[in-house]
Design goal:
Elements: H1 2-19, H2 28-45, H3 55-65, H4 67-86, E1 93-102, E2 108-112, E3 119-125, E4 130-141, H5 142-213, H6 219-253, H7 280-290, H8 292-313, E5 318-328, E6 337-346, H9 349-420, H10 426-461, H11 476-492
Antiparallel strand pairs: 1-4, 2-3, 4-5, 5-6
Helix pairs in contact: 3-5, 3-11, 4-5, 5-6, 5-8, 5-10, 6-10, 7-9, 8-9, 9-10
Length: 496
C-alpha cells in the first residue's frame, strides 16, 4: 500500500508539472521575423504604379488595398462563417463511440439467497476479460433545437451588423481620400514654385546679410528686410511640410508605404462647386433609410427581441429523444448487436424562478437598444444638417478664395512688370510671389475641404461610394471607371 501511495503521489506530481505553462516574451528574433514578413506582405498587396494617379484610381486603390478596409471585410466574413456554423447546431447530434475494457482477472460474482442467507450459486462470470464495444447514437433535444434556432437568427443579424460596419468603413475611407487627394494635388501644383521661391528667398537673405556686414546699406531697413525674408522662409517651410504630409496621408489610404514615390494627375482646373439639389427634409429621410448606424441598430434590436424569447424558452423542460446501434465483443451476451431507443425529459425547476428576472433583463436591454436607436437617429439628423451647412459655407468660401487668388495673380503680374522696369524692389517682388503661392494654397485648401464636404454629404446620407456591380475583385481599371461614372453623375447634382 505504501508503494502504491508513493506511486500515486509521483504520478500526480508529474501531471501537475506537465499542466503548468509559461509563456515567453516576444524575442528579438520573433520581432525581426514579423517585421520582415509584414513589410514583404504589404509590398506584395499593392499593384504597381505605372502612371500618374487620378482621383478615381486613388479611390479604387483604397477600396482594393486599404488595410483597414481589408480588416473590416475579414470581420464580416468571420461573422458570416459563425452564422453558417450555427445552422449545424439545429441538427440532431450523431455520436460514434468506441471503447476497450480489460482487467487482470475474471469479473466473477456469487449470489446469496435472501431467504436462507446461504450461497445459492457458485462464482460465475458473464463478461470476458477483454471487451470491445461500439455504438452509434443520434439524439435530438427539442429545447436545444429551439434555442439553437434563435441563436442562429441572432448570428445572422450580427453578420449583417458587420456588413454595415464594413460599409461605414468604406464610406469614411472614400471621404478621407477626397480630402487627401486634393490636398496632395495642391502639393503637386505648388511644389516646384515653392522650391524656386525658397531658393530665391535664401539667396536674397544671404545677399542682404553680406551687404549689412560690409556696411553697404542702412542697418534698420536691411534688418527689417531680413526679418521679412525670414518670415517668408518660415511660411514656405510650413507649407512644404503640410504638402508632404498630404501625400503621405493619401499613400496610407491607398495602402502604399509612406516612402512610396508616386505622382498625381493634376486637373487643368479645379471643379466648380454647385448648389445642393435635394431639400433638407428629403436628405433627412434618405439618411434615416440608408445610414449604416441606423441599420446596425435595427439589427441589434432584432437580437434583443430574440433574447426575450430565449429567456422564456430556457424555463421549459428539456425533452430529448435518442436512437442508436450498439455492438459488443462479449461472447457471453446472447445478443451482441442491438438497437436502442428511448426518450428522456429533464426540468431544472430553479429556472422557473429565474425566468422573470431574465425576461426583465432582456426587455430592459431591448428598451435600451430602442433608446440608442432614437439617439442615433437624432445624431444622424444633426450630421446631415451640419454637412449641408458646411458644404454651402465652403462653397462661398471657395468662391472668395478663388477671387482672392485671381486678384493676387493680377497683382503679381503688375509687380513683375514693374520689377522688369526697375520700378519695384526685389523685396516687393519676393513678397508678392510668396503671397501668390499662399493665396493659391489657401484656395486649394478650401477646395480640399469642399471636396471632403461634398463626399461627407454622401456619407451623411449613407450612400455607398460604388455601384452594386462592383464587389472588389475586379482590376483597378474597372473599379476606377465605375467610380468615375458614379461620382461624375453625383457631382452634377450633389445631395441627390
Amino acid at each position: 500500500m505504501r508503494k502504491l501511495i508513493m506511486s500515486l503521489v509521483c504520478g500526480a506530481a508529474v501531471i501537475l508539472t506537465g499542466c503548468s505553462t509559461t509563456v515567453p516574451r516576444v524575442s528579438d528574433a520573433e520581432a525581426a521575423k514579423f517585421t520582415a514578413e509584414a513589410k514583404a506582405e504589404i509590398q506584395n498587396l499593392q499593384a504597381p504604379i505605372t502612371q500618374s494617379i487620378s482621383l478615381y484610381e486613388a479611390m479604387a486603390r483604397a477600396l482594393k488595398f486599404n488595410l483597414n478596409h481589408r480588416v473590416s471585410m475579414m470581420e464580416a466574413d468571420l461573422a458570416n462563417a459563425d452564422y453558417e456554423v450555427s445552422r449545424w447546431d439545429m441538427l440532431p447530434r450523431v455520436v460514434a463511440n468506441g471503447q476497450y475494457y480489460g482487467r487482470s482477472n475474471e469479473a466473477g460474482a456469487r449470489s446469496l439467497s435472501l431467504l436462507s442467507g446461504r450461497e445459492s450459486l457458485e462464482p460465475s462470470t458473464s463478461t470476458e476479460r477483454d471487451v470491445y464495444t461500439g455504438d452509434l447514437t443520434a439524439t435530438w433535444n427539442i429545447l436545444d433545437f429551439g434555442l439553437s434556432k434563435i441563436r442562429s437568427k441572432q448570428l445572422a443579424n450580427e453578420a449583417l451588423i458587420q456588413e454595415e460596419r464594413r460599409r461605414k468603413a468604406v464610406i469614411q475611407i472614400m471621404e478621407d481620400v477626397h480630402r487627401a487627394y486634393y490636398r496632395a494635388v495642391s502639393a503637386e501644383r505648388l511644389t516646384t514654385r515653392l522650391s524656386a521661391l525658397e531658393n530665391e528667398v535664401t539667396t536674397a537673405f544671404q545677399t542682404s546679410r553680406e551687404q549689412f556686414a560690409l556696411r553697404r546699406t542702412a542697418p534698420m531697413p536691411a534688418l527689417s528686410y531680413q526679418r521679412e525674408l525670414n518670415d517668408i522662409q518660415g511660411q514656405a517651410n510650413r507649407l512644404a511640410r503640410e504638402m508632404q504630409v498630404a501625400k503621405m496621408e493619401l499613400a496610407s489610404l491607398m495602402g502604399l508605404t509612406p516612402d512610396q514615390k508616386y505622382s498625381l494627375q493634376v486637373p487643368a482646373e479645379m471643379p466648380r462647386p454647385t448648389r445642393l439639389s435635394m431639400s433638407y427634409e428629403d436628405m433627412i429621410d434618405e439618411a434615416l433609410r440608408n445610414r449604416p448606424e441606423i441599420r446596425e441598430n435595427i439589427y441589434t434590436q432584432r437580437i434583443s427581441e430574440k433574447e426575450i424569447k430565449k429567456a422564456t424558452l430556457e424555463a421549459l423542460p428539456s425533452i430529448e429523444g435518442f436512437v442508436g446501434i450498439d455492438s459488443s465483443s462479449n461472447d457471453f451476451l446472447f445478443n451482441s448487436d442491438w438497437a436502442g431507443y428511448g426518450a428522456r425529459a429533464s426540468w431544472n425547476l430553479l429556472n422557473v424562478f429565474a425566468t422573470g428576472k431574465r425576461e426583465k433583463k432582456a426587455k430592459a436591454r431591448h428598451e435600451l437598444e430602442k433608446a440608442r436607436g432614437l439617439a442615433t437617429a437624432m445624431a444622424v439628423m444633426t450630421q446631415v444638417g451640419v454637412a449641408r451647412s458646411r458644404y454651402e459655407s465652403l462653397t462661398q468660401a471657395y468662391m472668395t478664395a478663388s477671387d482672392g487668388a485671381m486678384v493676387q495673380g493680377d497683382i503679381l503680374g503688375q509687380v513683375e512688370s514693374l520689377a522688369r522696369a526697375s520700378s519695384a524692389s526685389k523685396q516687393t517682388l519676393v513678397r508678392e510671389r510668396m503671397n501668390g503661392i499662399l493665396s493659391e494654397a489657401r484656395r486649394d485648401a478650401v477646395m480640399a475641404e469642399m471636396a471632403e464636404a461634398s463626399a461627407h454629404i454622401y456619407t451623411a446620407l449613407g450612400y455607398d461610394p460604388y455601384s452594386t456591380a462592383i464587389d472588389g475583385s475586379e482590376d483597378l481599371k474597372t473599379i476606377a471607371e465605375d467610380l468615375r461614372v458614379l461620382w461624375t453623375e453625383r457631382s452634377k447634382k450633389p445631395g441627390t
